[in-house]
Amino acid sequence: MFPIPIQKRPLINRISYKILVPVSLFIWLIPLLGIMLTSIRGLGDITAGNYWGMPSEFLLFSNIKEVFQNTPMLTYIINSFKITIPTVIGAVAISCMTGFALASYKFKANLFIFFTFIAGNFVPFQILMIPVRDLTFQMGLYDTVTGLVLFHVAFQTGFCTLFMRNFIKALPNELFEAARIDGTSEFNIFLKIVVPLTRPAIAALSVLIFTFIWNDFFWATVLIQGQHAMPITAGLKSLNGQWVTVYHLLSAGSIMAAVPPVIMFFLMQKHFIAGLTLGASKG
Amino acid sequence: MVSYTTPFLTVPNSTQFTYRKSSWWKRNQQRLTPWIFLFPGLLLFLVYVIWPIFNSLYISLLQWDGLSPAIFVGISNYVELLDDEYFYISLMNNLKWLILFMLAVPIGLGLAIFLNQTIFGIRLIKSLFFFPFVISQVVIGIIFSWFYNPRGVIGPFLDKIGLGNYAILADENFATYGIIFAGIYPQIAYCMILYLTGLNNLNTDQIEAGRMDGAKGLSLFKNIILPQLKPATFLAIVVTVIGSLRSFDMVAIMTQGGPYGSSNVLAYYMFETALSEYGYRMGYGSAIAAVLFTIMMFYILFFIYRMYQGEKKGL
Q1: What domains can be seen in chain A, in order of their start residue?
Q2: CATH assignment of B79-314?
Q3: ipTM of the predicted assembly exceeds 0.85
């Protein structure tokens, strides 16, 4: 155990540690507490410059209501789900297959393909921007949810393949061999052995990709123009421009954008962290 | 973990033996299956990621507004870059991002060590520390813009200590640092979680042995802990470098590169030249992207090299 467990330290250290932890947590979260506090304020507080004192009124719900009534926020949220969920399903399904192919078959191009997926996953978005936008235009998918999803699935396949391949590689190979001897076809090996065993990896990837895609801003800006397909990140950005003086509404909107990934994180915390670390921990 | 040892599995060449008398498909199944499984993923990846890279490199040799016919201009876009003041400002800002972002690694390590205890509620506390990483950068950017607002937090604070109220994001000299500070906030959380996992997987025997030998404090940390945290450090550095070069969202939200381009970075400058009211200069934008890509490629190759070494050991 490093550092030495606090329980083994002198009393004075134990007490100061127990004070220090919540204090530092409070300081760490000040930005987030600030926005929460602001989201419950009324216009009165904002114009009076009361940003940090106690809110004079508790208006969180009426602020949220106002956001929903006066802005396309509901559409943005629905769009975010419409973009995120199919991407998660698509990327995870596809990378189960690629991961399996790269983990359990030996063929010449194997490592080359694997490293291509990894390298592609790290490239700056800007080098893809113009051709991807053109391609989406040509397919008639510019400014549609489908166009954005298709790109997201393709791009996330890189990271997901790295992850799934390493996970499947760590499974005991004897399992596949035994099934082959029993005459099981390769497809059934995939469906009946690999998929059930990779369930934890699938869960980890799903939460992770959900968060990545929900929070994506760049591609939403490049491939989407209108409100009908815009996700909440890009929506917030446009509200940010219009609402310079109504911070309480902007804060309420920001909170709405933050809630789904936060819930996802708390529900699936273990998987989320496993995903962030295990995926490339072989490096 | 269950161990799956079944003695009869060690028969050599068992596959050939089973498949000898079967159809063409059965005989070639082993060889063809990986390609069938790879097909959808590989196709999408080639179309949407690999081909666009080369296409962008080609476009960087064109003069093109995206609509009218493109003109091949050779390397003149790159030559123009050499004289572009805003390009240098952006490049310098990228460098500032890169250097300052690196602070996230030791700070994350420090936080991880600080929190690696078992007291009541520590799990929740760790999750709350991790919070900023889960939230969209757009939201973080909005929060910090408001922080920096003269009527927000920093301004009144500076006013109070007698430095005068101040709009950080409107100041050419400070805007970039303001954005970097906001950007580093979630990055610290990310590094912290990587190190927390690393600390969790430490080899207890080695630490105890070190302590027996009288290693304490800094020397224990330097000689025994840090070497064991190497995989976490490696990963933290890689994700931090890439995060710093992908600094688009924060800039777009907080300053859009202003004032007067002083907080621009290559990622945003590229977007601005190629796709905004400042014009549709696809070729010039692609040249900027190509520079960014080249910088990133060093790190990517380094990462791949490390992974390749690992694979060779594993085989």
Answers
A1: 6-62 (no CATH), 71-278 (1.10.3720.10)
A2: 1.10.3720.10
A3: yes
